[in-house]
Amino acid sequence: MPVFSKNFKLGLLGGGQLGRMMLQAAIDLDIHVKALDPDPNAPCAKIAPEFVCGSFLDFDTVYAFGQDCEVITIEIENVNLDALKKLQSEGKKVFPQPEVLELIQDKRIQKQFYRDHQLPTADFVLTDNADAVAANVDFLPAFNKLGRGGYDGKGVQRISSAEDVHLAFTEPSLLEKAVDFAKEIAVIVARNEQGECKTFPTVECVFHPVHNLVEYLFAPADVSEEISEKAKAIAIETAEKLGIVGLLAVELFLTKDGEVLINEVAPRTHNSGHHTIRANHTSQFEQHLRAVLGLPLGDTTAHSTAAMVNLLGEDGYSGDAQYEGMSDVLSVAGVYPFLYGKTTTKPFRKMGHVTVVENDLAKLKEKVDFVKNTLKVIA
Amino acid sequence: MPVFSKNFKLGLLGGGQLGRMMLQAAIDLDIHVKALDPDPNAPCAKIAPEFVCGSFLDFDTVYAFGQDCEVITIEIENVNLDALKKLQSEGKKVFPQPEVLELIQDKRIQKQFYRDHQLPTADFVLTDNADAVAANVDFLPAFNKLGRGGYDGKGVQRISSAEDVHLAFTEPSLLEKAVDFAKEIAVIVARNEQGECKTFPTVECVFHPVHNLVEYLFAPADVSEEISEKAKAIAIETAEKLGIVGLLAVELFLTKDGEVLINEVAPRTHNSGHHTIRANHTSQFEQHLRAVLGLPLGDTTAHSTAAMVNLLGEDGYSGDAQYEGMSDVLSVAGVYPFLYGKTTTKPFRKMGHVTVVENDLAKLKEKVDFVKNTLKVIA
C-alpha cells in the first residue's frame, strides 16, 4: 500500500516526547500514526490520530498493535522484540529492525560489534560478574556498564581505583577504559531502505566549566572541519555496518589527542537532535519518517546556529506542572520553548526543552544563560 | 487562568488546513486547543486535542462551544458573530474581536473604513444594486464586488465597459476602479493585546507570464526596500486602526507608479504566510497563537528565501485522493510538501501546498517548475 494513501498506517511504539515531535512532523505529510504507550496521559495521547493505551514491552499487546500497520517504528528502544520479529516475519516492515534493536539493547554486544567491525571505541573487557571487574584493576580508571537495563545514567558506575571495586555490578557488564576526552560530540545519521545515508551536522555537548555537567547542546560543534567530517564518517560507517533503517544517534568522544571514539548509539530520534526543528531545513523527526517510510532523505543543512537546553522539573517540586518565566523567555528573539505536555512534574523530569537560535555566539551564550536562569518548572 | 496551566483551553472556530497548521504550532507550547467544524473529516478532526463536530455559523453551537474556553479564536472569518459578541460580553477573550470580523466580513464597510482612516486603497463607489453600477459607467473599467458572502474569487465580477453592466450584482456591492498594478504583494502583521505589533517580510504573488494567473508565492518580494517598508507600514497602520488582536493578512497592489494600495485584508493566518513554517524563525501559526494568547511576539526574520506553490486537486479527478510524484519531489533538496489530510479530492480543491526553500533564485524557479509539473493530486 502506498504511503500517501488513505488506509496507510504507521505504528509507533512509545508515546513520549520523541513520539510527540514525530507526530507533528507526520502531520505535514499526512501520515496516519497510531501510537502505543502504557500511560493514558503520555505526551502523544491527545494528539495522535490513533492512540492505544498498553505496554510496548508485552508480546501480545505489541503483536496485536502491529496487525493493521504497514510500517512499525519506535521512539524508545526498550520494546518487545519477539513481537516485532514475528510481525517482521509475517511481512510487516519494522524499522529500525528488531535485530538492530537487540544488538544495541545489550551494551556488551554493542561494544563487541564495534570491535568486530573496526569501529573506533574505547578499549573494554567484558565482565560477567563483580569478580571479573576485580580481576581487571590494571584497566582502571574505567566505567563499569551494565549490559542490559541501563537508562539515562543508570547502569553506569565509575570505578576509579581498586578501592571502588566493591561498587562493581554483579550482573553481566563491561569495563570500559575511562576516556580523557576534550569534548563530547554527536552525529545523527539517517538511512533508508534504499541505502541512502545522510548525516546532520556534528553537534557538541557543552559542559559547565565548574560543575562538569552537560549544560547545553551546541550546533554546530566547535571543532575543526576535519574532526567534524571524521565524526560524520564514523556515524555513516556505523549505520551501514548495522544495516539500520531509520535514525541512528551516535554519541562520540573527541579525545585530547584528536581521536574520535564511539561512546554509544541510540537507534532513534535523540535529545541531541531537537534543535534541528528550528535550525535545520529538515528536522530529525521528519528525517526519521522519511527513512522508515522509504522516502528520499531531506536536506540536513543548518540554516542557523543553535543551542538546546533541557527543561527539567525543578528540584523540590512535584505535582501539576507550572511554568515560571515563559513570557520572559518568549520575549527574547530566537528563544523557542517546547513543552512535552506532561501534566505532572517531579525533580529532574524532562518536561521540555528550549531551542535558542542565534548566529552571534556571544549572544547565543547570553540567551542560553537567561533561559536557564529564568524558565522553571514548578508545581 | 494562566496560558501554561493544565486547564487552560483555546477554542478554535474552524477545523480546516489553517487550523491544522495552528494545531501543530500549539503542540510546541502545549496549548490545549478545542476545534469546531461541521465536517467530521475536517483536517483538524484527528489531531485536535479536542474536536467538536458542529456549525461555526450557528449561534447556539458557537455559544455552547465557547463556554469552557479561556480564549476563542478563528481560522475562518465567516462565523457566528452574535455568539462571539455574547461570549465576549460575558468575559471571554475573543481574538480577533467580533467587531473587527464584522467590519471585514462586509467589503463595503471594509472599503469605507480605509477611506475614513486615510488608508491607501483603490477608488470606489458603493452600489446598492445593479442600477447603481449602471449609473457609474465613467468609473469603468472596475471590479464589482459583493458586500457580503464573497469567497476565493466568488462575488467578484470584472466590469470592463458599458457592455458588461448586465453582469453587475443586484445585491449591495461596491464598484472598485481596476488598478493597473505592477505586482501583487502581501504583508502579514501580528498584534497582541498589549499593542505589540510585528510584520513578516513582504511577499509577492508571481504571475504566470502567459496565463496571467498566480503561479506561486515568492518570499521576500522582489521590490525595493522602500516599497517593502511602505507595505509593512501600511499593514501596521491598518492593524492598529482596526485595533485587531491576532493576525492580519494585508493584500496590496503595487501600482506601476510605485503606489502601494490595500486590496483586501483577512483577519487570520493566510495562504500568503505558509512558507513561514520553513523559511522564517517564527511561523505565522505560532505568531497567531502568541498574539491571541497575550504572549510576546516572535522573531519574524526569514532565514531562507522561499516559494510556495498551492497543491490543487487535478482537473478531471474526484474521489479518494492519491498523490502522484511525491517521492520525486521529496528527492529534491529544499522541497517540503504539506498535505492537508483531506481524504476526498475534487478539481481545484486546495489539498495542500509545497514550500520550496532555496537561496539561489534561478534554482528556486527551477524547483518550483519541477514541483508544479511533477506533483499531482488525482483519484
TrEMBL record, chains A, B:
UniProt xrefs under Gene3D superfamilies: 3.40.50.20, ATP-grasp fold, A domain, ATP-grasp fold, B domain
UniProt keyword terms in alphabetical order: ATP-binding, Ligase, Nucleotide-binding, Purine biosynthesis
EC number: 6.3.4.18
Limits of the ATP-grasp domain: 111-293
Family: Belongs to the PurK/PurT family.
Function: Catalyzes the ATP-dependent conversion of 5-aminoimidazole ribonucleotide (AIR) and HCO(3)- to N5-carboxyaminoimidazole ribonucleotide (N5-CAIR).
Xref: NCBIfam families: PRK06019.1-5, purK
Subunit structure, as described in the record: Homodimer.
Protein's name according to its UniProt entry: N5-carboxyaminoimidazole ribonucleotide synthase
